[in-house]
Amino acid sequence: MAMSSRDRVLAVLNHEVPDQVPIVMGVSNATGIKMKTYQGIKQLANINAPDEYIYQWPELGTALIDEETLQRLGSDVRGVRDIHPSETLKRNQTRELHSPFVDSWGSGQMEIEPGEWFPGIHPISDASSIADLDDYPGWPDMKDPTRIAHVKAAAAALREENKHAILATPWLLFPLERAFAMQGMDVFLLNLAINPDFAVALLKKTAALCKDLMGPFLDELGDNVDMIKIGDDLGTQESLLMSPKMYREILKPIHADYIKFIKEHTKAKVFFHTDGDVVPLIDDFIEMGVDILNPIQTSAGKMSDLAGLKKQFGKNIIFCGGIDTHRVLPAGSVDEVRQEVNRVIQLLGEGGGYMVSSVHTIMNDVPAENVLAMVDAVKEFGKY
Known about the structure:
3-stranded antiparallel β-sheet, TIM Barrel, single chain, alpha/beta, 7-stranded parallel β-sheet
């Protein structure tokens, strides 16, 4: 018997076998679609919907997927997100054309070519002491109620429909990535190595601010949520950004405390996003209470060994992702996309424990035909 989308996802979250592999698409930036490809999907599907951006943030470039397109994509999940505070939205919507986008933390993006934006504003790149952190005047008010004024009603409406699982995603509430945004990745990683006391202080500062929003966000959601997305990008194409020893000594306690905080406030499962080859840390994620690992970057080092991942970790963690955005989706043929979806499902989907998604955001170089081929292949090959 066919399950509802929500029941299908809940079965996977409970380590049970659903009727078919669930699809997670278009509900957060990490599972999203950039605007050009989104427009192509709508054109192919003959869908007439406006071009809007997630978080009301055009510079991010990720589309806010309309309901009809979500249905065409077969997404079994719907999203609830926070938003930039009203003052930040107004300031950026009325700023001079092509000038930098600056968020509520003081970090931001610069236009490197028309319509292309890149993180380039790091407000405390010169900071190197705890006193420098204390002196920074731009720390955000994470308790600004305009960030989450819509959350309670949005989540309640989705639960009233009771059709889809709900993935809630406060924007970039990740301590390490926020440290990167505040200092620049190269600067912060250097501080992590040569000035660890300062680096830890900055991580703890960003984590505390994350909690300041996460707590009220979870309160507004109440029981109307199934998964909470957090994460920090910890991997590269071939290895980790830091040694396992450094991760366990410095960042893991902060992640563990954050996950503990979340689990004290909700029964929702923790959906942890981290790019790259993070195989050496998966046991750590499980120990900390991560329930779902995303995006399973199959082009990165040992993450390509899907059979090994399933055998070693599949009983203790759910996999979400796995469909390659490095080569297959942007450059493969429709048939190659279908074959890859089938291959990944056979390896990760055995006995349940897997939800299909692309490896991070589907970028503008992915043909719309390949996205539709991907989701249609899930329906073809993903039945149990």
